Every structure is written in structure tokens, then in C-alpha cells.
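TA notes, week 10

Several of you asked for a full example with nothing omitted. So below is the full record: C-alpha cells for the whole chain, then the designed sequence directly under it. When grading your own attempts, check the secondary structure regions first.
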């Protein structure tokens, strides 16, 4: 195979298009009943953050461009599969501004479509070899454990913020870590840089999820079902921070009320903000972002510059 440079600045669109085309080809091999939900979500890809981050971690290292595309498709498939399952568990009505798969084809078929997407990712990782299959398997185990912990904590107003951070480290941080490790391994980066990119992925993933939780308190977001998590007893970082501080009794009473409805969400937002929960969550996200940036000091300039560029582009949109 002929080695080539990874996507240079300005070529990201071509790389992304090839990644999505690879996902389309893989999804086309599924049975008709499962192909639809996978293909529909793949056709509405969002930021393509994970595949872009993988290529950024490769930096300027000479790699096989076809393998890079397959690796990008692999991480996007794992993310896509996790979204299909998350939406079933969370009963979310919207994903990226469109109806979720389970609202269109039912939770059973949407769950099976998620399993099919995980299977496609597993097949890709096995074919790519070189330890990739083991890394992907470990990550899927972490994701499953994190999802289980998420379900077990429902309506637990005594759930600590520290426990939640450990949960999202598994549920969100693990996938970002895998993404960075795949890019570092493909570029054959030295052990010191591999460890630094691994840490970056974990810390960035935690910050990403905490900031997303903060958005759940912002009304008018058309890309997601705002407040759905609260309705299901899945409280994010701002709410958990508020439940651990002054005014927790009133907030817990509201969240656990048998009469709690979507009409009570403005009151939840008000209590969380007044107690400083939102400010604490934003501060916490900033701490983890700082750790992520600091980890990049150990990474060679070619990758560090590209990863920081992605961070600068994504952070304002979180």
C-alpha cells in the first residue's frame, strides 16, 4: 500500500465524505429492517467530531489513507450505535433536529439496529487488526457499563457529582479516548504521546458531557429534547451539583414529585441556576478542559496543533 499524508487543512470535507460513504456501504449490507435506522442517522451525521479528532491525532504521519477512512468510519459507527441505544433508554424524541429512530420504527427495532451498528464496528476492527479489535472491545465494555450505571441511578437525588463523573468517564470519555488512541497508534506515536492523547481523550470527553448537560437547561434547543433526562430521573452535572448544595430539599422535592411534568422544567432550571449548580458545572467542565489542553503539551506539534484547532471549533458550539 502507498502511504500518504492524512487530510491536510482544507481537505477535511473530502475525508469526512469518504468516512460517511464507508458507513453507507457497511450499512447497506444489513437486512432491510435494520438498514433504515442506521442509514438515516448516518445521513444526519452532526459534527463528525470523533473521526475528525482521530485524523488530527494522526497529524502529519504518513499513513494509508484507506485505513484512515476505515478507522474514521469505525469510531463514527460506535458513536452512532451508542446514540441509537441512548435514545431508546432516554426516550428522546429528537436527535440532531429529527425524530429519533425508536419513535419511527419502535424501540425493539431501534435497539437491534444499534446492536447491528456495534457488530459492523466489531467486524471493521477485526479486519483492521493490529490490536484494534481489543481496544474497541474494551471500549464497548466501558460504554455498556456506563449505560448500565446510568439506568441504575434513575431518580436518585442523592447521587453524587463524583459518582456521575466516574459514570461519564466510562460512557463518554472512553469513546473519545479510543478515538485518540486509534489515531496515535496509526501514526506510530511514541509511548509518551500515546499516554498524553489517551488522557486528553478522557478529559475532553468528561468536559464534553458536562457542557452538554448544561445545554439541557437551555430552552429552545431544536437539536435535542430539552429536559427529557429530568423527566426520566437522569440528572446531569448542573442538577446534581445543585442537589448537593443549598436549596437541595426544594429541588429534590420537585424532581421526585409524582405530579412532575414538562411544565415544571422552568422551575427546575430556576432552582438549579439560583443554587449555583449551573455555575459549578461550567466550572467543572472548564477544569477538565484545562487538563485536556495540558495533556497536549506532551504531544508533537503536528498533532497538537490540529487537535487544538478542533477543540477551538467545537467548544463554542457545546
Amino acid at each position: 500500500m502507498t502511504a500518504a499524508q492524512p487530510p491536510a487543512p482544507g481537505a477535511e470535507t473530502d475525508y469526512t465524505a469518504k468516512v460517511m460513504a464507508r458507513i453507507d456501504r457497511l450499512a447497506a449490507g444489513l437486512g432491510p429492517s435494520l438498514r433504515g435506522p442506521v442509514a438515516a442517522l448516518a445521513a444526519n451525521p452532526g459534527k463528525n467530531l470523533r473521526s475528525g479528532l482521530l485524523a488530527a491525532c494522526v497529524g502529519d504521519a504518513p499513513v494509508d489513507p484507506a485505513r484512515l477512512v476505515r478507522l474514521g468510519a469505525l469510531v463514527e459507527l460506535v458513536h452512532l450505535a451508542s446514540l441509537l441505544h441512548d435514545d431508546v433508554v432516554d426516550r428522546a424524541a429528537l436527535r440532531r433536529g429529527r425524530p429519533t429512530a425508536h419513535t419511527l420504527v419502535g424501540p425493539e427495532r431501534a435497539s437491534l439496529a444499534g446492536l447491528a451498528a456495534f457488530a459492523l464496528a466489531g467486524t471493521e476492527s477485526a479486519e483492521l487488526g493490529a490490536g484494534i479489535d481489543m481496544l474497541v472491545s474494551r471500549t464497548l465494555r466501558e460504554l455498556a457499563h456506563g449505560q448500565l450505571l446510568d439506568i441504575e441511578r434513575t431518580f436518585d437525588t442523592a447521587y453524587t457529582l463524583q459518582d456521575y463523573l466516574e459514570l461519564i468517564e466510562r460512557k463518554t470519555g472512553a469513546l473519545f479516548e479510543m478515538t485518540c488512541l486509534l489515531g496515535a497508534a496509526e501514526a506510530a506515536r511514541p509511548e509518551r504521546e500515546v499516554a498524553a492523547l489517551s488522557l486528553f481523550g478522557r478529559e475532553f470527553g468528561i468536559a464534553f458531557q458536562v457542557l452538554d448537560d448544561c445545554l439541557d437547561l437551555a430552552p429552545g434547543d431544536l437539536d435535542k429534547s430539552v429536559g427529557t433526562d429530568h423527566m426520566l430521573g437522569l440528572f446531569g452535572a448542573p442538577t446534581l451539583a445543585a442537589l448537593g448544595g443549598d436549596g437541595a430539599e426544594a429541588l429534590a422535592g420537585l424532581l421526585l414529585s409524582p405530579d412532575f411534568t414538562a411544565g415544571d422544567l422552568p422551575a427546575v432550571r430556576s432552582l438549579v441556576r439560583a443554587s449555583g449548580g449551573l455555575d459549578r458545572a461550567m466550572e467543572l467542565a472548564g477544569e477538565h478542559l484545562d487538563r485536556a489542553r495540558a495533556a497536549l503539551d506532551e504531544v508533537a506539534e503536528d498533532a497538537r496543533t490540529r487537535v487544538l484547532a478542533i477543540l477551538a471549533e467545537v467548544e463554542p458550539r457545546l
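Residues 13-128 form a domain with the Farnesyl Diphosphate Synthase fold (CATH 1.10.600.10). Use that as a sanity check on your answer.
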